Structures are given as C-alpha cells and as structure tokens.
Amino acid sequence: RWSASPVPTMIKLVEIHLVDDRRIRLRFSDGSCGVYDFSPFIEAHTTMTAPLADPAYFARAYIELGALAWPNGFDLSAESLRRQLEQSGALE
After folding, report:
1. Residues forming a β-bridge with 62
2. Residues near 28 by beta carbon (within 8 Å), at least 6 away in sequence
3. Phi/psi of residue 83, each to 5°?
4. Average pLDDT across the chain, whole number
5. pTM of the full predicted structure?
6. Does pLDDT of 9 surpass 90?
7. E strands within the chain?
C-alpha cells in the first residue's frame, strides 16, 4: 500500500485593501492578514517598481492567481509576502 503524504497547502491572497499610497492590507487563504509597506520597492525605483510611486498606479494592484500584481507585470507571491510579514512581526 501507498501511504499518502499530506500535500502542503499553497498560501494565496484572497483579499486586498489599499491602506494608503504605500501600504496594502493583505488577507491570505489561511486566514492570516497584515499590512504590508511597499516603501522599499517604491524607493528601489527599478524598471518594474518605479510606476508604484504614482498613487493612482499603486492603487491598481489586484490579485492574479493568488499573487499580488500590477498591470506592468510586477507581481509578488503570497507566500513571500506572508513570510516577510511574519518575520517582521506584522502578521495577524
């Protein structure tokens, strides 16, 4: 007989709410949530993150396949966002 190993559940974003022009409240599929500050991405001013400095563009964030995304193709996995919130003590 084969023994079934538990399949790890992939964490996904299920809800986002804009807090201001640099922070988004994220709710994950495991029920946890937290406010993520995107200032480091905005201040990095890379080709992909420079548009986030415009509050109207920042507000265009959406969930795509469980990840956080913007129209220019910049996206961040829910697992990495959750891990960073947890490490900073900001995960609820």
Report:
1. 69
2. 11, 12, 13, 14, 78, 82
3. -60, -45
4. 92
5. 0.88
6. no
7. 13-18, 23-28, 33-37, 62-64, 67-69, 75-76
